[in-house]
Design goal:
By secondary structure, the chain is an alpha/beta fold. Helix content is about 25%, strand content about 35%. The chain is globular and about 60 Å long. It binds S-adenosylmethionine.
Length: about 250
Amino acid sequence: MIPLVYDQVNRWGKDDAFFIALLKKTGVKNIADLGCGTGRLTTHFAKEGLHITAIDPHEAAIATAKRKKISNCGKITWIIGDSSKLHANSYDAVIMTANVAQVFLTNDSWQQVIADVYHALKPGGHFIFDTRNPQAKIWEQWEKDVTPDEAVNQENGDPLEIWTSYEGFQNQIYTFYETVKLAQSGKVIMKEKIQLKFRTYEEIHSSLRKAGFSQIHVYGDWEFQEPTAETKSFIFHAEKRKTHHAQ
Ligand SMILES: C[S@@+](CC[C@H](N)C(=O)[O-])C[C@H]1O[C@@H](n2cnc3c(N)ncnc32)[C@H](O)[C@@H]1O
């Protein structure tokens, strides 16, 4: 995540409209946006009338989010941190958009996030997130794209180029690098290593069950269709039990 260019290369898409529609369907009011980044989508949630706790460990991303006009509407609380900052029993939904689920590289860190989310949801609360299907091997398409993305430094108007180089896929983790250069001189102003874990449908399903989620629904695209073998992204929608049964 490079906040300087993130919003410019991640424009509004079908996935964003899907998340808004799904939240509307569930009728939630208080949500946590975990891994909110620059608040790209958070501000749209606020426009829909939701109250949001927006959390991300990336300080510069949260600073970028706070500078946005709508971010001061009183409906968003910005927090620098991770899932440990979620309050117990507090949210109607926790959402992780744009593949935040893939930043947790170890099984322990992933299981911890799910446990924290479960703890943070009210009974009957919703956990919603997307993650790419490893079987679709999206990285094979990424690697064909050798042209840089273009952006502009919003502070000084400098035209920028974002170059991506690919290291490859190993142990379910795909590694690549993003480099931001000044378009005119080619001078590198930022470089970031990005690693994404590609978990299978079955792995995610069983990790949700292990954390206590009982009802789990999975969509296979941004039109609310069921997943198939070709599905590019799974969208998980898990619900916390409404009541506790005595043992
Ligand atoms: C691809 S961005 C998605 C940002 C945002 N959700 C969106 O829709 O634009 C992934 C985000 O996950 C955040 N992230 C990294 N480690 C995290 C962690 N341990 N807990 C929560 N978020 C984390 C990154 O800082 C980054 O902002």
